[in-house]
Amino acid sequence: MRFGRLSLAAAALLLLATASVPDGTPPGRSRPGLSSDAFLPRGAAPRPAVQRARHEAPFGAFVGSWDSHIPQIGRYARWLGDANMQVGHTYLAGNGWSDIEGEPAVLGLWSQWRLADPARMLVLGVPMLVPNEANIPDAQVAGLLQRGSRGEFDQHFLRLAGRLVALGGADTVLTLGWEMNGVTYTHRCKPDPAAWKAYWRRIVGVMRSVPGQRFRFDFAPNRGLDAIPWTRCYPGDDVVDIIGMDSYDQPAGATFDDYVFEPYGLQDQVEFAAKRGKPVSYPEWGLFRNGDNPDFVQRMVEWMRTHDTSYQTVTDYCPHGFFGCTSNPRSSARYRQLMAGSRGAPASPFAAPGAGPGTAPVPVPAPR
């Protein structure tokens, strides 16, 4: 998320429960940064959103920190009328490289939670650089990305992959370098998109080299243009399994239709994913600049139910959420109405990494 995120150093927030496009132009775009609807005759209806038959995606809610909040999943589910909350979501802190390698106790407990039910899914946010929230200048970020693309940091991701496999998290979904199109994190893309993509590819190759892994990698930018078109950061179909998007109710005064049809918004996401045979996801979503807004909640849930959504996890602390935040009573009531008693859905069957049209096996670099 872009604004108001708690520092991962203070709280590793947790959830309960090929080709790249060289010019940065998403499918259906007349030119970069402009919606193709801008060229429709006045009064013409915008192009319809890509969607599929209504379905219930696996879901969860991000409400706490570390392993101690795992019991909150059950409490949240009971609040939703014993709903089947299937997705657990947490983040690795990004203060130093030891954080990126993963704390075994935390990874182990989350992996045990996931293994207790074959329908469950563990989603892990993995920073690409450290320190990840230190306001590092762009020139320094570019240098770090280039060093990563040359393999200087391979050993940390190799250790993370080995620990996940050993602890039972071999099929974890990894939101690697999330919100890379923004400015919040050191692992941002804008200072050097070419190096960023090369570094992502190297990390994926290193982690897939570990025997027994079945990881899925989720490319999850912020919705909209932000600091750079997210298509310019896309590293290739062979190293991406899910095309995600973090979507909060902002800016102030915007409508849900704005979020659908804005450049690099929700419609561009689903079109981009459909063209590549990939599912979409919504690792972070919730209220923000428009306050207690039940219409946003209704429209967002319906959007996720009518598209090829692999999973969704609402951010449930103030000002974004419903269960852990008393500031949004109308939205809370609407979310409970929509999700109460939900049985969720079977977790998406695992496909071979990189499955999709026009892909080739990604070379596995020799870890240093």
Radius of gyration: 19 Å
Q: Shape from CA axes?
A: globular
Average pLDDT value? 84
User: Please, how many helices?
Assistant: 10
Number of domains: 1
- Helix-strand pattern, N to C? EEHEHHEHHEHEEEHHEHEH
Examine the secondary-structure arrangement and name the CATH architecture.
Alpha-Beta Barrel
Distance between the termini: 32 Å
Q: How much helicity do the residues have? A: 25-40%
**What's the CATH superfamily, by name?**
Glycosidases
Multimer state: single chain
Number of strands: 10
Question: Strands of the biggest beta sheet: in what spatial order?
Answer: 1-2-10-9-7-6-5-4-3
Secondary structure category: alpha/beta
Q: What fraction strand?
A: 5-15%
Q: Can you identify the CATH class?
A: Alpha Beta
Question: What fold name goes in the CATH topology slot?
Answer: TIM Barrel
Describe the structure.
With 368 residues, the protein is α/β, with parallel strands linked by helices. The chain has a single domain, classed as Glycosidases (TIM Barrel). The chain is 29% helix and 13% strand. Strands 1-2-10-9-7-6-5-4-3 form a 9-stranded mixed beta barrel, surrounded by 4 helices. α9 (294-305) links the parallel β9 and β10. α5 (154-167) packs parallel to α6 (193-208) and α9 (294-305) packs parallel to α10 (329-339). The protein starts with 12 loop residues before the first strand and ends in a 29-residue tail after the last helix. 52% of the residues are buried. Mean pLDDT is 84; it is low at 2-47 and 348-362.
